[in-house]
Design brief:
This protein has about 375 residues and is α+β, with helices and mostly antiparallel strands. The chain starts with 9 loop residues before the first helix and ends with a helix. The chain has a 4-stranded mixed beta sheet, with helices on one face. Strands 2-3-7-6 form a 4-stranded antiparallel beta sheet, with no helix packed on it. A two-stranded antiparallel sheet has the order 9-10. It is about 50% helix and about 15% strand. It binds flavin-adenine dinucleotide. Flavin-adenine dinucleotide binds next to strand 1, strand 3 and helix 11.
Length: about 375
């Protein structure tokens, strides 16, 4: 009794089976340990590369699968459903790789993308600084020309894959006197002298994912490490952020659907006052509300997915789905957790992990407030 999904074809469903098998074998048995470690071992990245799970959206000539964004959506959904949030694949494959594909020169694409696809190198993108997150024009990190080199100085924080990263796209001012027009994207390899990884930060959720401080102290890179044109970095960020925001929406809906399933099963099984808690009118109404909201969310995000696969998802619509779906996710998970009673607060129950992990969806890739600004500006 739900509206059938029409967005995926048989090839996507076949790939979904591969992704599920990979998760069952290589992720699920180890994820609890990774949560304790605060990081996913490098080996998993290489295995995921070997199974074709990374860089699905990148053309085959650069080592990817040459598929549309819908293949990426399959990976995002399957990881989200089980709350397997440790492997930072979506950032590597669907956020960092597109910058290199769209703005890198031929040499950068040929040298970097195949190694990313094989999982040989792990990547990150460093926008946020201790003093600025939402207001990206205010970044203080500099990348200034000195002779034949570009010298990077500054500090970044909250960087996903930061500990594991071999290569980071650093958002820096090549012209510190300018605002947005002074911003460039600079590739910094982790073994450059002066580049230091700071703490792996302790977080409320996403516990298996490494999130780091990064420090740049007179890090020297060749001018060829600038991605695309100097001074165009802010424009590139604005062009790529809709996909990053859609990734959040896709994950949010997959998590809500999973949470509804867990809660239906739990409330049918759990008894109070001599009957299943699913029989209480309050439970039935709450579940009816959640099922309806999740269905509306599903139709909305699938339409956004179709538009994006056709290259037609605009910036305001991407912002709309990001804020609305992540806010709805917060409410839905809260309701589902409540229906689990005390067990909902226990880490061994997926609803507890989902509740913790999902909170960041309203913050990263642009906060709800910034999304509403973007929508309001477009009206
Ligand atoms: C787990 C995690 C992973 C992350 N991964 C990355 C990553 O890989 N790379 C990266 O660069 N960053 C990453 N981030 C950073 C994230 O993108 C920022 O935290 C986010 O953009 C918000 O910036 P901020 O934390 O500086 O908050 P601030 O910008 O200081 O905002 C604080 C509050 O003020 C509100 N606010 C700000 N400006 C306005 C305004 N104009 N109108 C109304 N309200 C406003 C915000 O909405 C928010 O509620 C990550 C963060 C976390 C927690």
């Amino acid at each position: 009794m739900s509206i059938p999904r029409t967005v995926f074809q048989e090839e996507h469903e076949a790939f979904r089976r591969t992704v599920k098998a990979f998760i069952d074998k290589e992720i699920a048995p180890y994820h609890a340990q990774w949560e304790k470690d605060g990081i996913v071992p490098r080996d998993v990245w290489r295995k995921a590369g070997g199974e074709g799970l990374l860089l699905t959206g990148i053309p085959e000539e650069y080592g990817g699968s040459g598929a549309d964004f819908l293949m990426s959506a399959v990976v995002i959904e399957e990881l989200a459903k089980g709350i397997w949030s440790g492997p930072g694949f979506r950032l590597h494959s669907d956020i960092v790789a597109p910058y290199i594909l769209h703005y890198g020169n031929e040499e950068q694409k040929r040298s970097i993308l195949p190694r990313m696809a094989r999982g040989e190198i792990v990547t990150a993108i460093a926008m946020t600084e201790p003093g600025t997150g939402s207001d990206l024009q205010g970044v203080k990190t500099t990348a200034v020309r000195k002779g034949n080199e570009i010298v990077v100085n500054g500090q970044k924080t909250f960087i996903t894959n930061g500990q594991n990263a071999d290569l980071v796209i650093v958002v820096a001012k090549t012209d510190p006197n300018e605002g947005a027009k002074g911003i460039s994207l600079v590739l910094v390899e982790a073994d450059r002298p002066g580049f230091r990884k700071g703490r792996n930060l302790e977080k409320l959720g996403l516990k298996a994912q490494d999130t780091s401080e990064l420090f740049f102290d007179d890090v020297r890179v060749p001018p060829s490490n600038v991605l695309g044109e100097e001074g165009q970095g802010f424009k590139y960020l604005m062009q790529e952020l809709p996909q990053e925001r859609l990734i959040v929406g896709v994950a949010a809906v997959a998590i809500m659907e999973a949470a509804l399933e867990w809660t239906l099963a739990y409330t049918r099984d759990r008894k109070a006052f001599g009957r299943p808690i699913a029989d209480f009118q309050n439970t039935r109404f709450k579940l009816a509300e959640v099922a309806t909201e999740v269905q509306v969310a599903r139709v909305f995000v699938d339409r956004c997915l179709e538009l994006h696969a056709a290259g037609k998802l605009d910036v305001p619509t991407a912002a709309m789905q990001k804020w609305w779906l992540s806010e709805l996710e917060g409410r839905v998970l809260d309701t589902c957790l409540q229906l689990h009673g005390g067990y909902g607060f226990m880490w061994e129950y997926p609803i507890a992990r989902a509740y913790a992990d999902a909170r960041i969806h309203r913050i990263f890739a642009g906060t709800t407030e910034i999304m509403k600004e973007i929508v309001a500006r477009s009206l």
